[in-house]
## 1
Amino acid sequence: MPAPIRLRELIRTIRTARTQAEEREMIQKECAAIRSSFREEDNTYRCRNVAKLLYMHMLGYPAHFGQLECLKLIASQKFTDKRIGYLGAMLLLDERQDVHLLMTNCIKNDLNHSTQYVQGLALCTLGCMGSSEMCRDLAGEVEKLLKTSNSYLRKKAALCAVHVIRKVPELMEMFLPATKNLLSEKNHGVLHTSVVLLTEMCERSPDMLAHFRKLVPQLVRILKNLIMSGYSPEHDVSGISDPFLQVRILRLLRILGKNDDDSSEAMNDILAQVATNTETSKNVGNAILYETVLTIMDIKSESGLRVLAINILGRFLLNNDKNIRYVALTSLLKTVQTDHNAVQRHRSTIVDCLKDLDVSIKRRAMELSFALVNGNNIRGMMKELLYFLDSCDPEFKADCASGVFLAAEKYAPSKRWHIDTIMRVLTTAGSYVRDDSVPNLIQLITNSVEMHAYTVQRLYKALLDDISQQPLVQVASWCIGEYGDLLVSGQCEEEEPIQVTEDEVLDVLEGLLVSNLSTPVTRGYSLTAIMKLSTRFSSVNRIKKVVSIYGSSIDVELQQRAVEYNALFKKYDHMRSALLERMPIMEKTASNGPTEIVQTNGETDPSVVETKHPPPVTQSTNQATDLLDLLGGNDMVPVIQTSVPTKPASAGGELLDLLGDLSLSGGPAPTPAPSVPTSQPPFLLDGLSSQPLFNDIAAAGIPPMTAYNKNGLKIDFTFERANPNPNIAVITINASNSTEADMTDFVFQAAVPKTFQLQLLSPSSNVVPALNQGTVTQVIRVLNPQKQQLRMRIKLTYTHRASSIQDLAEVNNFPPQSWQ
Amino acid sequence: APMNLFMRMSLTTHSFLSSFHSHLCFVISSFQMQFMLLFSRQGKLRLQKWYVPLSDKEKKKITRELVQTVLARKPKMCSFLEWRDLKIVYKRYASLYFCCATEGQDNELITLEIIHRYVELLDKYFGSVCELDIIFNFEKAYFILDEFLLGGEAQETSKKNVLKAIEQADLLQEVRGLTILIGCARELFGGFTP
């Protein structure tokens, strides 16, 4: 039997293969030869064969059949065998295979071998891949070796102990005695590995941490010697003595000094010394400085030291080496909260890093920049960040856009600036903006009343340029629907008003409907916008036509909308203007972001009230000012409740949603308000299904009253207290009609003073039958936290004998019990 | 122990093998080298040292993906990148990439020094080391690494001591022509790639 081919020759041969197939063939041939050699239990060449197997394994070929052979090699007496055997074990075996346990005995023997290099092999293997079982079995041996005076073995035993502790934490205690004089070693290898061991123990156990705190002075001394001692060729790296040991000591000091005043104070001087004396021309010096900075920031260092650390980071930022800049940005990001002012001083350098070519550096610079934005620097910072947004990679755009929105919301110096900033983001990164930004922006725009004309004009112009970015298009559609009248009347004060006709505007909106670039959600927005314009524009016929076309759209969402809008035109035309009135100011909750917005189906498109279920919703939200005008008062401010957006198409839940979404003075209107912050005053949510609409039981002792009685229409109020909130009075109105003709299209609206909140539930019907044959009932809930005297203004509209009647009245005669 | 502050602040998250994650999770230690890979510019693996237990399949997947990621980096980029839940430190020496993966709050700059020290050791041992040396004497590269690092940590900070230990161990090797072969390697197989 010829001797198996040598390792180097095999390598050479395999490398001559020109194709993958050729290589595979060679490998297979050799594997077969190796297998038969193994079968023959050939001791002489086992080592060579396993080595070849390891090479082939590295190329990616299976080598599991060599596992047992590795064990045989380990058990051999020859050092060469053991060397390859242990290497093979580390490469081919791991703790998942039971076979690895067979190593345990060999390792145990080798740990006690007479040759230190054999012991070293065993320690290395155990410390690299020892399983928990092996560690348990052999911990005692490792502990023994940890106490040896042979520094070659001692250092390896220390790291082996680290591994044992990581696998079997309960065994940590047994190594404690051996750590007693580890730090008195002169040998750097032992010192280094001892510090690693101590670090591991301190991190895992608070008791150990407390125990080892007493080592701080000794560690400080060792570190001092390293810095002060002269040139030591053995450990020198570019003029610095044993940087690896310095770094590990600094790290251990960090752990020991954290949250401990005394330890922190004891290390203060040495940290300052290292920070100021370390040579920074090469990476190695900066590595030590970096570790020093990390330590200073983590312990209870005095402020002077902290400033020193931040300044080091600031200098790092100016370093040509991008690796140094990277670690600086990372560290600054960690400290920006606690040392905000110190980091602010380096703001311009940080902003410069936005232009770096490296992705990681750019990202950190971006995050840090956002953390540094405040009321004073918002204008300048935003300029830089918007420039960054323009030019950055797509992977950054979504995060950057969100960051810009958040910062703008917090620190906007003016409403105009805020709108401009939003516009900039939408036009430059509009397709990357998160979905939930759209409702946020719409709310913001709605509430910036004086900017409506300017906003809609800018958005319109943006649409003329580009309709591909959906968030931009959606916000623009919504605004045009709301403020289209301002657009065509050229009312803009902030900039030159544009001349645009109604037809041009409708062209643009219709263009969105047909464009391939528009998503279904966008189409919904634009159809609704077109519909809204029917009360703002005069070209109603054109709008009617568009709406009726989409009544047969294959897109169900669009079709539903179109059908309902059609219905508005046909059957409910009298309600149309009220329904499509301008959105009121939405109440803002504390700024927060996207998480506050209720997402429904991921769609937040506005939908006019779904009038699927009779009785239909009869009222709409009125703009605050409208109601004030009507009711004439100036202390009556209808507090408009924010409404939870309804699902655009959800069957049964619809009615309940309508009941839940009430705003003052009117009825439910989950109107074209795509999401709005959801933190409602609790009692509004009470209004959902669980609460009975009509409570027969009169409130204990609160007498009913007649609120209105004119022209045959009588409206009575009955009261009760809501459970569980006693500040809420539940008023049920009963409207009756003593005339001979029905009162149809009956709508009841109410307004209360500023200190109250009012919720109007759905009426039982909108026809008050003649001759008192029936009543219309409706429930009003009034929240009166300040227990003020209840006053109300009511507005009634109905059709009687073919004429439209409207009336206003003030209700002042509430019984005291209803509000006290 | 504080884990992965860097990842927490990073706004992107990478998905990773759940089994991979579970094996990394059992190590609570804040600083640990998970593995070291050496590979060529063509993506061929020249050395793989794993300090955490993973299946062969997982190792292959990680290797494949990480190699791809690192090779895609442009020269102007920094030596550090976040990948899955790990911090990767890599440096190219001639035609070989040296790539370490650490978890948690490691000092990337000192990891660069670790890599550099290893290269210096190889260089001293082989005499102006090149990729071919690593290819034909891969087991030696492992032996040297195992005298320098143990369990992912440096066991010896003196270059001289590491090389002395290797020298002594080499002498222990029963003569089978191996020691002679190392010297002959250059003559027999010639051709250096700088």
## 2
Amino acid sequence: MASGSGRRGGLRLARILSGNVNSYLSSGAEKASTAAWRSTGQLSSAEIAPFGARSVSGQIVRNRLRSRMVAASKLRNVQVKAENSRGLWQPFTALLGDAPATKVDKKLIVTISSDKGLCGGINSTVVKYSRALVRLNALDHGPDDKPAVVYVIVGEKGKAQLQRDSKKLISLYFGEMRKQSVCFTQCSMMADEILKSNEYDAIQMVYNKFNSVVSFLPTVATLLSPQQLLAGNQELTGELDAYEIEGADTKEEVLQNLGEFQFACMMFNAMLENATSEMGAQMSAMENSTRNASDMLDSLTLTYNRSLQASITTELIDIISGAAALEG
Amino acid sequence: MSGAAAGAAAPYWRNAGMTYISYANTCAAMVRNCLKEPHKTKALNREQVYYKLQTYQEGEPQKPVVRETPPAPPAKE
């Protein structure tokens, strides 16, 4: 592969250089010094040739290439799942609406981030949006002592960033999500825990929606509690009244069930989209870092070669002038 | 989130403290158990759960709790 030809090119250059050295030297004493030089392995052996640096780095570049292929296939799998799960929440939004600007008393912010690093800026954007939501909420309510906003953090990286300044506001933390691949049972168990542990009027989920391999949009999904839904939205209740609900359920119960199920579906979709964005960001981060590393490697190799040639030339000049001084 | 609004009786599962999500998932687990063999193990393996939950009291993290489904052999639930 690339490194093999690089190594061969290095060998060729090493031979040419040693050939040049031999042609410059005329007397036998200098040949001894060259022999000594060669025995230290600086010019002769391929592995620790001056261009040995290129062969080691070729290995690293090949590893990066391989892990990029792996990431691409993982991305495809999760992307399919995420796109299929979008159909879960779209009917909910059509029915219940999406109202990000609602002013409520108690808010729950679910921040979805990744566990692993090396995924570009997606975690910082999610944390930035969550903090902005908290500040917006503070603006709405004036200087209240009681925190009307509570965090639920999913993912290691989000916790690391939010713990620094918002520790008092955190209520729950879910970690080690990626040990098993994301499934609906897992998301609904998490949603269940969140519902049982907190009283809230609205939930705002912050996650990265997957647009394409290079573009991830930070998204806020707002879910109102059933009481809020009934209170705020007159047309919704009017619409629901037009339907006859069978069984013993009342409209409030149906709305409550729907609200809880909506949360579970949105959680499922948000986790999948975030996982897809994480894979995509990892791929592009690795690709960028590979490209930067290759560029840096090339420029450093050139600098190294130049300085090596300069030092060889200086040595030659010393030897030749010494020899000339001896003769003359 | 307490039970139903005034008037109607809440369904039995809500009285027992379950949310609709846990009710729906329990029903789904029962349906998965009714599958025939090769599909059953596939479905059960698909829905494995593992996560760690850590509650925070007054800004201090409490001891984390692991929630997982044991990778069950097909006979068990």
## 3
Amino acid sequence: CIPRGKVFWPRLPLCSGGPAVSAAAIVLLASLHGTVRTKNNIQRYFGTNSVIYSKKDGQSVPTREISKETKNLVNILKGMKVELSTVNVQTTKPPNRRQLKSLEASIGRLQKAPEDAPQKRSESRSPELVAAASAVADSLPFDKQMTKSELLKQLQQREEGSRARRVGERPKISFTNIISDMKVARSATARVSPRPVHQIQFDEGTDDFVGQEKAAHLRKSFRKNIFKGKRLNIFELKAVTEEAPETEAAPSLWDVEFSKQLAAVNEQPFQNGFEEMIQSTKEGKLWEFPTNNEAGFDDDGSEFHEHIFLDKYLEDFPKQGPIRHFMELMTCGLSKDPYLSVKQKVEHIEQFRNYFNEKRDILEESSIQFN
Amino acid sequence: MESHSFLLAKKSGENAAKFVINSYPKYFQKDIAEPHIPCFMPEYFEPQIEGISEAALQERIKLRKVKASVDMFDQLLQAGTTVSLETANRLLDLLCYCGNQEPSTNYNFQQREQAEELEEATEGNNEKPKKKAGHQLGVTWRAKNNAERIFALMPEKNAHSYCTMIRGMVKHRAPTQALNLYTELLNNRLRADVHTFNSLIEATALVVNEKFEEKWNNILDLLKQMVAQNVKPNLQTFNTILKCLRRFHAFGKLPALQTLREMKAIGIEPSLATYHYIIQLFYQHESPSKGSSLIIYDIMNELMGKKFSPKDPDDDMFFQSAMRVCSSLRDLELAYQVHDLLNTGENRKFIGPDHRRNFYYSKFFGLLCLMEQIDVTLKWYKDLIPSVFFPHSQTLIDLLQALDVANRLELIPQIWKDSKEYGHTFRHDLKEEILMLMARDRHPPELQVAFADCAADIKSTYESQDARQTAPSWLASSLNYIAVLFLRAGRTQEAWKMLGLFRKHNKIPRNELLNEFMGSAKASGSPAQAIEIVKLAGAFSLPICESLTQRLMADFTLSQEQKEALGDLTALTSDSSSDSDNDVGEGK
């Protein structure tokens, strides 16, 4: 239902006295849904203010400009910074048409967005933004309230836009679409947005504020660009994260050397005496404090009861008689021995067992009961 | 300065002691420490197992004795015993890693680069050629060396054998052979592991005489083969790709970004080395062109507040390149961001070895001098120098220029005093700069006195330098400045002595200097001095001589003989000077 070649034009008497801000918003909304003006109005409109605008035709604005007027305001913003070399008043040229075509194509998609706009308008904006917008508005010959509200709204939209992009909505108006459809009026305009950042930054003007805002916006919108975009599309996430059932071989020489190199990356000479002491402690040159009498001594993990209760090793020996007596005395002595490990004590008992077994015949002669 | 050399001395003493203990282990057997301290005992580098057996071979491999292992292997084969696949693989590992050379021992206090023969070095005595383990750059892979021979001799080979050979070849710069071996591996229907693929990527980039597009396509092919063979890429895969892309200059920019995104998409977190390679790629030239990218801002935004652990051996190069970019972009905010990142968590350990740290801080401080207010710069000066790094003389010159811009020249004597402590006593450019800044304008008297003291100090350094060297170290400009400073501070005696030095070193005084001397002579009311000046000017045949003479005549009352002497002098000069006014000479 949108006639081709026509322009969306908000029904706003810009040069008249100040309607309320909300009224402007509503009217703007209404314009999006279908009020149409012819191009003649535009011509008239711009005819009176040729001095101010510089690059109306070439639009290097980022995204989502719905109405021509808001776009112009953005140009004003930029135009205030840039040397006005050409004054381009006519708007009936083909470049406009083409650019508007792309806009029309995407307006449909954008129908949803403006509905959210009124709610978001009540969101608090940063006072700097408001101050900046009012400063700009003050300097323009139009109605100040209108311009200010326009500016704020436009900035708001851009913020939404970048937010939306971050959230990952389907691309509405893609940047490249606009640029590809636009005829390049000047080479400067078709370039990527970073350029205004530099321009604004290098200008010594009172409006550094606004410049910085724009720079921050641009930087933020540029922020994820190194991570967004085409990738090689060779690997799949699934294939990489699933655990491959590979057996871990013993680390080869390559692995050992690599881990040594990696450890060397972080090496720094000692910054203070504490680091020196830490290193010495790790090497074993320095004791660990508080001192531990058993530092470095593990005793094969055996407990005290394994040292003391050695009766279970006497099961094979006769239950009575001198041998038993002897062995019991021996276990008593062994249990008090702090220098032998459990294994050594058991070995002792083993040795005696073997000894008595060998000398069995002598013992039987002395009629000592053996079992 | 002393603490630095003290720490180095301490470390080298430790190394020397370790060397002695390990060379004569039989004298250091007593072990009285309880609990036992292993690092005090001598280490054993000689193989203990004698005889020909696989165990002996394994021991020699473990001790990294290349020649001994190869000999043992040959002996085993001759004796007819088969060597197990695993041991053979380990032998191959050793050979491929070391490039058929003896690896260096850990005694890195002897860092003489000895000429490497490509034959295996003789082992056994401790006078082996010592080199740092990292300096394998000189080692190239010869054809038909031991590794290839043994590889051919092995009855069975598994994937590991091929992989280790490929890795060895790439490490020692034989990329085409590596690629050929890879095709052989594929023909045998074996599967390479991820490390081998990383080496192969490097190999494709090393091959000469191919265009960048071809190389890039080859790399992409390799990656697709990785997918086909179900080999998971790791961080090193992507870092190797980026490292190779660096050589492709402008062509590599887009592929690099694609690689980065691929990495993120798979879930492999980029390390500092990744960003280092990207920075190197995008900011290859020193001067920023108009089209220089904003990538560094994106990278810094991404990295803010993150803490890192070492994942890649090149991680410690990031901060240096980041600061280099900040310096060339002249962006102080960004430099502060980078510095904050350095100070987050334990990231300061990634600053790298001494020379890298010095580079980073020199660039940082240079940028501060250039862009920051002088008070903040001085605060940084106190913080950083000398506790964090020793300034280059250029750094100090930058600081002096910053002081000049901020009109804080009274700090110059202090800076000179500091410079002497940092070892810049005999640096000409620094002294020139200091003298020039002091002598350029007139200053209030106390400051002038301080400047004159400083100048006297500098003069003494010149003199002591003269005594030591045969070549004269004085420069005409320094003589000028020092003389001017003396004059202005009222130290006329010394100033006059300076004039003598001019003649001695055959340097020409400047016109302003002579005028100042004239003024001083007038102030002290001594026509003799004035005549001295004119004589000096005459001796050097300076064109200013006439104006001096005029001034002399005008300001002073001269005795007759003085006038005669003057007459001769001016007659001489009026003949020799180019634009002489003969009236002056004749007007006597």
## 4
Amino acid sequence: MQQWRSESGAMTFDEVSMERSKTFVKALQELKNLRPQLYSAAEYCEKSYLHSEQKQMVLDNLKNYAVRALVNAIDHLGTVAYKLTDLFEQQMLDISTIEMKISSLNERTFTCQAYVDKEGLNQLQMSARTSRHHKHYILPDSVCNDVQNKSHIPADGNVNPIQAKSHSHAPGKSTSKTLSWHLASEVNSASNGSPLTAPCTQDAKAPKVNSEVFHLLVAEEPAPSLPLSSHLRASSGNVTFDMTSDKFGSMDPLGASKPSTSKTFGTHSKLEIYRPHSRSKSMLSTFFTKNKTFKTRKVSVP
Amino acid sequence: MARAGGMTNAVNVGIAVQADWENREFIANISLNIRRLFDFLLQFEATTKGKLAALNEKLDVLEHRLQVLEVQVSSVTTNPSVFN
């Protein structure tokens, strides 16, 4: 095989394989041609032994020819076997090379498929991540800044427990405020003089309206009126009822015109949080559409 | 004379027998070698058949793998948007 490659160095791989197959075919043809030659030689020897007088010489010649013919046949057969084996080994080598190439292609396809599957999985995971919802309601920064400007921390020591809870949060967290914080801020803003201002109001006119209402309330009722915080404290049970019973009646413009007595207070007097109609929806109402009942909710005094 | 003739006949018979034995030996050797050649041919045929069968099986496997690869590549070429 190496001799073939050295002799035909300029030949291509296909040409070398063609040459190899040609030699095999030639050797096989020669082996096939041996059969009629041996048949003709056997007939000639038989005729000459029968018709010739020197039978011993014919016999000796026949023996020599038989030996040489047998050696020749074995030689041809060996050549054919060698050529066939060489051809078979070359074919096996080619097939193993092709198998390696196919395996590499397979590996490439598997790699590509794995990559595609991974990318698809990542995309699905990303889409799954985007659909998550946060536990707390988070307000945007602009709204929270407005709330911070409007809300004021009371100077006195009487701090609403709700406020205490809210202020326990880190002051630096301006980006996200919890619901409890907004509730506390709303209450705080109410106690400071704008009783019904929401923590974050989208309508700029609402605070003005609230102040006007407050003044109206003050003008209608000559009796001094306590701030809303006191009422809330009463609702929480921190202040005695006797002190605030009269004031309750004075602060209720929509309710009974007469000042309420302790009797009515004892019989489940209720504190109504007044909200003017002209006032726009508070931030809380925008988030809690169901809390319309909260507006008119009546705080029962224990 | 008769005895000499008899002796020559015995010698000739002896020679003939010897020659016959030689011929038979020669024929036996030839036939033995032909039988060995025949056995070699049978063995060669069996091994070649086995090797060709293995080669055929390998070729079938490679053909199937190539068909699978061809289908995969054709699917990719027909639907490139899936992989974009």
